[in-house]
Write a structure and sequence with these properties.
Strand content: 15-25%
Order of helices and strands: HEEEHHHHHHEHEHEHEEH
Number of strands: 8
CATH superfamily of the largest domain: Phosphohistidine domain
Helix content: 40-55%
Number of domains: 2
Number of helices: 11
Strand order of the largest sheet: 1-8-7-3-4-5-6-2
CATH architecture of the largest domain: 3-Layer(bba) Sandwich
Radius of gyration: 20 Å
């Protein structure tokens, strides 16, 4: 590990945060924070125009997922195909159009119906179907991002650690795993889509981190140790030396 690179980031004292991990070893790199889709109030417009905006955003989302399908294996592709099937669902689209005609906001209609579906799936007793709520959350955020012109933070350098509140399947598949060496989440779990894929690919993955978003939003150097389920922010020279040995 290059101590000079680490030294450049050591403007504050070392902080250590614990969580739950997949025990895939230790990595180091720049901690890169990824903000979540906000729940801010959405603008209203002419209902038919709002419906057209939403339809176009859904079509764009389908095209993005189709491109992802070409890059992944058959099993992972089937997960993305499930998301595309949701976006193409006639009943969902009919309900969305009716909702937009009532409230004149494509974003609010989309959030309302998808949040209802997410809640319904989270309440299911069958764990397999209950975990599929992640797919609805994934497409919810993707379409919202398209409607808002949101760009994910992908400013990855040679060695980076993804840090955020959550990481969903399609986001994981879009990451440059040559540069992203580990994943740290304030929420997340090890048994969902991302947890299973991270384990299969040997990517260090730490979830349920005992920290707040404000603790991790500054760009700094970090060490992720999933064997001991800890993240070091601005590690000291002593800590760096320990992981160099």
């Amino acid at each position: 590990m290059n101590k000079q690179i680490a030294q450049d980031f050591m403007e504050t004292r070392e902080q250590e945060f614990s969580g739950i991990s997949n025990a895939n070893g230790a990595v180091h790199g720049n901690l890169v924070w990824h903000s979540s889709i906000s729940e801010t109030p959405s603008p209203k417009g002419e209902p038919l125009e709002e419906w057209q905006f939403l339809q176009q955003a859904m079509e764009n989302a389908i095209q993005q997922l189709e491109k992802l399908c070409l890059k992944v294996d058959e099993e992972t592709s089937s997960l993305l195909e499930f998301q595309m099937a949701i976006l193409n669902d006639h009943e969902l689209r009919t309900s969305l159009k009716k909702e937009i005609l009532k409230i004149s906001s494509s974003e609010e209609a989309w959030k309302k119906l998808l949040n209802d579906l997410i809640h319904q799936y989270r309440e299911l007793e069958d764990s397999y179907f209950r975990d599929r709520y992640e797919d609805f959350l994934d497409i919810r955020n993707r379409v919202l991002g398209i409607l808002r012109g949101h760009q994910d933070n992908r400013n990855y350098e040679v060695s980076s650690i993804y840090v955020g509140e959550d990481l969903l399947l399609s986001q994981f598949l879009e990451m440059d795993l040559e540069k992203v060496k580990g994943i740290v989440l304030l929420n997340g779990n090890l048994t969902g889509h991302v947890g299973i894929l991270a384990q299969a690919k040997g990517i260090p993955h730490l979830v349920k981190l005992k920290a707040s978003a404000s603790d991790l939003q500054e760009k700094c150097f970090g060490i992720l140790d999933t064997d001991n389920a800890v993240l070091f922010k601005n590690p000291s020279n002593i800590t760096i030396s320990k992981y160099d040995s």
